[in-house]
Amino acid sequence: MGDSKLEVKCMAESIDMMKDNLHFKIPVYLIQGEEDILTPKEMSKQYFDAMTAPKKEYYLLPKAAHGFNQAVVDTQYKIFKKISTK
User: Fold this and answer.
1) Chain centroid to CA 81: how far?
2) Most buried residue among 37, 55, 61, 65 by CB atoms closer than 10 A?
3) Cβ distance 64 to 82 under 8 Å?
4) pTM beyond 0.70, yes or no
C-alpha cells in the first residue's frame, strides 16, 4: 500500500493489516481493482484470505484501478444490489 512516486505514504508503517483488524462480526465484501497500484491485488487478497467473518466475498474488478470511473461505479452498484437481495 502506498506509492513513493505519487508520494502516498504507506499505511503499513502505522497499521499491521496482517495482525490487526482480522476478525469481523459482520459480513465483509472486498472490492478490488485489478490494476490498482496503491493497494495491489496481491496484498488485498492476502489480507482477505487471513480475515474471518460470518460471510466474506472478494471481487476483483478487471481493468479497474484505485479511483472511480463509471465502469467501476456500475460494477460496484451491481455487486451491492446482489448483496442486498440475498
Assistant:
1) 18
2) 61
3) no
4) yes
DSSP strand pairing (28-33 vs 56-61): parallel
Q: Which three cell numbers stand for residue 71?
A: 465502469
Residue with cell 485489478: 34
Q: What angle do CA 55, 60, 65 make, to 5 degrees?
A: 130
Q: How far apart are CA 41 and CA 57, in angstroms?
A: 14
Say whether pLDDT at 62 is over 70. yes
3-60 pLDDT tens trace? 667 677 766 667 777 777 899 999 999 989 898 887 889 989 999 999 999 999 999 9
Apex 73 CA angle, 10 and 48, nearest 5: 45
